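[SOLVED] Predicted holo structure with magnesium ion

Edit: marking solved, answer below. Original request kept for reference. I posted the sequence and ligand SMILES and asked for the 3D complex as structure tokens.
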Amino acid sequence: MKDAKTPVVEEKKEIKDKKAKFAKTEKRPVEPCDPDALIEVQHLTKQYGNLIVLNDISEKICSGEKVAIIGPSGSGKSTFLRCLNVLEDPTDGYVFFEGNNLCDLKVDINYQRRRMGMVFQQFNLFNNMTVLQNITFAPVHVGLQDLRRVKRRNLRTKIANLFRKSEKKEAFLPVQTSAQEIKAEAKENAMRLLRRIGLADKASAYPSTLSGGQRQRIAIVRALAMNPKVMLFDEPTSALDPEMVGEVLELIKELAEEGMTMVIVTHEMGFAREVATRVLFMDGGKIQEQGPPEQIFGAPQNERLQDFLSKVL
Ligand SMILES: Nc1ncnc2c1ncn2[C@@H]1O[C@H](COP(=O)(O)OP(=O)(O)OP(=O)(O)O)[C@@H](O)[C@H]1O
Ligand SMILES: [Mg+2]
């Protein structure tokens, strides 16, 4: 019993410490954010000890954009991407998603993160679950959580209404679905996504029995199952055997063509050139140069970018 409680106690302590630290630190004034930006970072800074990985970056990403991030190893590309959905806490600065400040502890970060799909280099599928369970896990979990929240709220209303005069009784929130419906809908959606990538026959297979390319495509549709507003990809093809890179890039390209907003850290320069609407070159904790692919690859201005391209192209 004691063991079961320990992680919860630790988690609460962690949140309390974080809040105390947050309260103590002098906060930078929040600048008004651009209503047209889907994601906006203001003065984003990330430090690990004395190492400054992101150095006062301010940037906006609008709906429909396909932003490719390129740069040498260790330049902070992954850190930048992880700061966008606050998987990494910025040391300083703010991250806004649809106008919500994700660094504000009052904002429900889990709720906001649901709309930001993330795909990692190493797939990060749950190996103890089938493909179908991997895809339905988050939508079912979130759906049931929302359902329980509505039911709890209605129960509170019911109890409070017992003590209210009839004209002051509060209305119940509508319960529009059931647990069975949530699960059936998630399964139907997952099967639709699997059919789309031609892997419907793998629904009951375990990830370990699939190729790297298949696993990564499943990781992508798992993120899509949450109906995200933006997809964040961190080198989605760099752990793949060369012959599997194409199928994953093809899927990402399709999503891009359908209008999905995406931020993609990549070493695939040909892909960035073809798919991106804007390319950011990062080095030394800063975005050193950015622009449309034709400019970045065709007429780079920054010396470090020229040097980088001469090595990778
Ligand atoms: N949790 C951490 N603790 C300490 N240092 C870290 C941590 N995460 C990243 N770093 C350091 O931050 C720097 C930037 O790392 P990051 O992973 O963002 O680079 P990157 O541009 O994605 O590189 P790559 O192309 O190799 O993936 C590196 O020097 C790295 O060692
Ligand atoms: Mg990286």
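OP edit: Residues 131-162 form the longest helix (32 residues). Thanks to everyone who chimed in.
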